[in-house]
Structures are given as structure tokens and as C-alpha cells.
Amino acid sequence: YHLVFFLLEIFNNIIQYQFDGNAHLVYSIIRKRHVFHQLSNLPEDPATISKPKKKDREEQGAVVPASPENGEWIPTKEWVATWRKKLPLQTIMRLLQVLVPQVE
Fold it and tell me: For the whole model, what pTM was predicted?
């Protein structure tokens, strides 16, 4: 999960300090804005959190359900709430708030 933080920090740096030279990145962020909105509205309930993992296991043919006994880590509601608060999304969300109406 640390890689998500680092990637968001890179985006923030580019938006803040190198905005003019990175029009393609900014446009891509605008086009994929649903991803950033999903990150800012991460669900906290364990059933919703484990859905993507369940799909991955089904695609790989695994029948064993996710559980700590199987050695698989399952995020708790508290962990997700803490993690979501730390996501550096303010700059990107502000960019979307300002530029999306202009692009559309």
C-alpha cells in the first residue's frame, strides 16, 4: 500500500511544480478521475474490501476463502479508515474540481 502513497505524491509534485510541461499527465488524471474518486471514498466494511481479492482468487481457480488462518492478510475497518486519511489526495481532487468543468 505504500506504493499508492508514493505514486500520489509523484502526481502531486508534478501538478504543483511541473504543471505546464505535463499536459498529457494532467489530462490522463482528468480522464481517469473515477479512480481518484474511488480512492477518496474507499469503503470501510470488510465485505466490500475483500470483493476485488475474491475476484482475483476465482480467476486463478482458488476455492479456499480468504482468512487469516490461510496466511492471507485481511484489512480491518480501522486499518482502512486510517489508511484513507493518510492518502495525499487533496491536490489531485482540487485539480479535478477546477479543471473537469473546463474540459467538459
Answer: 0.72
